[in-house]
Design brief:
This protein is an alpha/beta fold. It has two domains: about 180 residues, FAD/NAD(P)-binding domain (3-Layer(bba) Sandwich); about 170 residues, Polyamine Oxidase, Chain A, domain 2. Helices cover about 25% and strands about 25% of the residues. The protein contains nine helices and 19 strands. The strands form four sheets. Strands 1, 2, 9, 10, 11, 12, 13 and 19 form an eight-stranded mixed beta sheet that branches. Helix 1 packs parallel to helix 9. The protein is elongated and about 70 Å long. It starts with a strand and ends with a helix. It binds flavin-adenine dinucleotide. The site of flavin-adenine dinucleotide has 41 residues, from helix 1, strand 10, helix 4 and helix 9.
Length: about 375
């Protein structure tokens, strides 16, 4: 049986861009519904709780980021303003103490006593970046968010409305709407959603050729009872040319347990071949070689390989970029779709595209288009 939902504006994707778009529309008195394929909100934003919570500490505070960790207020004013507007607690990335250079197997790490101070200042959120998603979600009516709704077909109807065909765990759903805002990576838009009539070739090519930021990467977190590295005068940051982690940072919660995180420097194909268990083992060996025996006894370890996430990465996203690409969408959806189909999501933004800030900038643009 096919169920039908009617909504004036359908937003595809419940990541930061989709949620912020719904929030902005609500402020302008426009009702919208978010359709999210996963059974959770946040998209590339994931903050996981410790499996052994610290007594007296809110479990939502003691969480660790497996997606984005940082925003940079001096560079990204939209993020800074939103964090303040939502009353979230931001704190500076811990970087007091020496930085370590990993010199590979059998060699002791080299200490750089001056450490490495990032500029501009990197800020984190208490409770992880998911706090931002949760704060936005609480501002919306509960029926404005539909989880487990994967849109796979978009059809322009003779009435001028748009029909969205959507797979859900309980069967197909048809959504009829006047306007659609897509808030998902551009590659997923062109590769996983069918359009009738088709989108212009120029737009499809541009979407397919736009790399999804960080989709090729994997992030590892090891949680500890204490930040023992700080007692050794270490900041928790380390760099390595041998890996498996190539860039390591302190990822401790503002309250509660301590943690180290790192980006895995092995490419997606090699990660698959190695397998998860081996990858975690060699990563723990590396952390122990760098930070000492205490590093070998984490409370929790978390690993997310973003290249294996089908609602983030496509086959093409198995390979990352050497540098941050220039984002922004040049091609338009016209003539068949006119202003009824609006494309948002961080990769569509020429302002800070790829970053959280780009997701917000794209939402502002989309909300403006709807209002006009
Ligand atoms: C490991 C990692 C580290 C990062 N570090 C940082 C950082 O420190 N600072 C920073 O600024 N940025 C960072 N980023 C980038 C940041 O996460 C993204 O810019 C931002 O989260 C993108 O938000 P978005 O809403 O545009 O897209 P997404 O978060 O990808 O959201 C898209 C949503 O659409 C959903 N979806 C997909 N297909 C469909 C469909 N067919 N139907 C319905 N829903 C669908 C997805 O499930 C997802 O929820 C990082 C990313 C990763 C992965």
């Amino acid at each position: 049986m096919t169920t039908t939902i009617n909504t004036p504006v359908a937003i595809i994707g419940g990541g930061l861009s989709g949620l912020y778009t719904a929030y902005l529309l609500q402020q302008r008195g426009i009702q919208s519904t978010i359709f999210e394929a996963r059974d959770r909100l946040g998209g590339r934003i994931v903050s996981l709780p410790s499996s052994k919570p610290t007594a007296n500490i809110d479990a939502n505070v003691e969480r660790y980021d497996l997606g984005p960790s940082w925003f940079w207020p001096d560079m990204h004013p939209l993020m800074d303003n939103l964090v303040n507007e939502l009353g979230l607690t931001a704190f500076q990335q811990y970087q007091t103490g020496a930085h370590l250079f990993d010199r590979g197997r059998g060699n002791s790490p080299q200490r750089h006593e001056l450490g490495i101070a990032t500029s501009p200042i990197s800020m984190r959120l208490s409770g992880g970046m998911l706090s931002l998603i949760e704060a936005l979600a609480t501002k919306l009516p509960t029926d404005a968010i539909q989880l487990g709704h994967q849109i796979h077909l978009m059809t322009q109807l003779a009435t001028g409305d748009i029909a969205l065909t959507c797979a859900t765990p309980t069967g197909d759903v048809t959504i009829t709407t006047q306007k659609v805002i897509t808030a998902l990576p551009l590659r997923l838009l062109s590769d996983t959603i069918q359009f009738s009539p088709s989108l212009p070739d120029k737009l499809i090519n541009e979407c397919t050729n736009t790399l999804t930021w960080m989709a090729a990467h994997a992030k590892f977190v090891a949680v500890y009872d204490q930040p023992f590295w700080r007692q050794q005068g270490l900041s928790g940051s380390a760099s390595s040319q041998t890996g498996p982690l190539v860039e390591i940072h302190d990822a401790s919660a503002l309250e509660g347990k301590a943690a180290l995180f790192g980006f895995v420097g092995i490419n997606a194909t090699a990660r698959k071949t190695a397998g998860r268990e081996t990858l975690i083992k060699v990563t723990m060996d590396q952390l122990t070689a760098l930070f000492g025996e205490q590093a070998a006894k984490p409370v929790d370890t978390f690993l997310i390989d973003w290249s294996e996430e089908k609602f983030t990465a496509t086959e093409q996203d198995q390979f990352g970029a050497n540098s941050h690409p220039m984002y922004g969408l040049a091609a338009s959806t016209s003539p068949d779709w006119n202003s009824n189909l609006i494309i948002a999501g961080t990769e569509s933004s020429s302002n800070a595209g790829g970053y959280l800030e780009g997701a917000l900038a794209s939402s502002l643009q989309a909300a403006k288009q709807i209002t006009h």
